[in-house]
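Quick start: read one record
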Amino acid sequence: MADFEQCYLATDASTDGSPNKLPMIGGILITAEGKTYAFSREVAERSDADIAELEALAVYEALYAFENQVKGVHTVLMVDNTVILYALVKASSRSVQVANMVGRCNTRREEIQAKLWVEFIKSEDNPADAFTRWQKMEFMIRFSGAELVEYTVPHQQKVDRDYLQEAEELLYMADNWREFPEMWGRVRKVWVTPKEGEGEPHWEHLVVH
C-alpha cells in the first residue's frame, strides 16, 4: 500500500425508499484508484426506527460492506444528517439508539483500523441517496459505474455494554488526550476558529478520529 491513500465514502438512509415502502440504507465509495463500489439493502426489521438511527446503521454496515476498501485507509465519510454527524464527531448522542449504534461503529472502525474523517454533505448533493431509493438506483449504477458489493449483514447481538457510558468516557479521553497514550495516534494539529468573543483563531492539537 502507498504511504498515503484516501477514499471517499457517502452513506444515506430513507424511511420508505424500498419498493415495499420500507426503510433502505446504502452507500457509495470511491477508492484512491478511482474504482467505485456501492451497497444497498431494505431494512424491514427497522421499520419503526427514526431516520437518525437508520443513518447510523448505514455507516455501521458500510464498514462491513466496504471492509476491503477502508481497512487501514484514510476515509472521508460524508453524511447528510446532522444528528449522526455530531454523534460520530462527539462519539455521543442524546438518543440512546444512535449512541449505541455509534458505539458499534467505533468498535468496528477499530477492528478494521479505518481512519475516518467525517464531513457534512447536503442531501441534494449526496450520491448515496440513490442507493436508498429504488427508483433512482439503476440510473446511478449506470452513471457512476459502481459495482454493487455483497456482504454478510452483521448480526447485532444484544451485549451487556453501555455504549452511552463508553462514548462519554471516550469523549473525556479525547479532551484529556495528553493523559492517555492510546489516544496520541489520533491527534492532529487543527486550525480552530472560535466563536465571536471567545478568542482569536489559532492552531490546536485535537483528537480528530
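Residues 6-148 form a domain with the Nucleotidyltransferase; domain 5 fold (CATH 3.30.420.10).
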